[in-house]
Amino acid sequence: MKFRVDDMTCGHCTAAIENAVRDAGGTATADLSSKTVTVDGLGTARAAELIREAGYTPQPLD
């Protein structure tokens, strides 16, 4: 699944999100230029929760 994360602004942001998802057993690829995060291996609700817990505001994309 893919999320738009407008408040992701730097490399630290992308690392925080990718690490949070990885620590929960999924994989995430954060693209700073498009402000999107692609998550695999977790449900949409769980992935969004992890991104929020990392301090960011995910918006699911279709």
Key attributes of the depicted protein:
alpha+beta, 4-stranded antiparallel β-sheet, 62 residues, single chain, 2 helices
Short description:
The protein has helices at residues 11-23, 44-53; strands spanning 2-4, 27-31, 36-40, 59-61. It is α+β, with helices and mostly antiparallel strands.
Structure overview:
By secondary structure, this protein is an alpha+beta fold. It is 37% helix and 26% strand. It contains two helices and four strands; from the N terminus they run βαββαβ. It has helices at residues 11-23, 44-53, and strands at residues 2-4, 27-31, 36-40, 59-61. A four-stranded antiparallel β-sheet has the order 2-3-1-4, covered by helices on one side. A hairpin with a 4-residue loop joins β2 (27-31) and β3. It is globular, with a radius of gyration of 10 Å. The model has no long low-confidence stretch (mean pLDDT 97).
